Amino acid sequence: MSNVVSLQCARERAWEPRGGSNGHAFKGLGQSVWKSKTTERDGQTASNQRLLERLEAENAQLRERLVELALQIQALRDRARTLTE
């Protein structure tokens, strides 16, 4: 996950103004290029958000399953103890 955040931060920094006479790094680029990159980045952000939501839902399911398995293990240990006493 940190790699995704690092990549996103690197992309955002790449498009920040870098100085110069008018403060723009890409002086010669037209609006269509900026708009295209913004749309592309927005699409990637939406895609990342959907992926994050899916992973969080899967994580919640796995945590629930882990609790169920831990309870089953405890019940089996308790039963094994009563059988050996």
Task: Describe the global form.
Answer: rod-shaped
The Rg value, from CA coordinates, equals: 25 Å
Could you give the order of the helices and strands? HH
Low-confidence spans: none
Mean pLDDT: 77
Largest sheet: none
Number of strands: 0
Distance between the amino and carboxyl termini: 49 Å
Helix content: over 70%
Nutshell version of this structure?
The chain is mainly alpha-helical and 85 residues long.
Structure explained in plain terms:
The protein has 85 residues and is an all-alpha fold. Helix content is 79%, strand content 0%. The longest helix has 54 residues, at 31-84. The chain is rod-shaped and about 80 Å long.
List the helices and strands and how they pair.
Elements (H helix, E strand, L loop, with lengths): L1 H13 L16 H54 L1
List keywords for this structure.
mainly alpha, 2 helices, rod-shaped
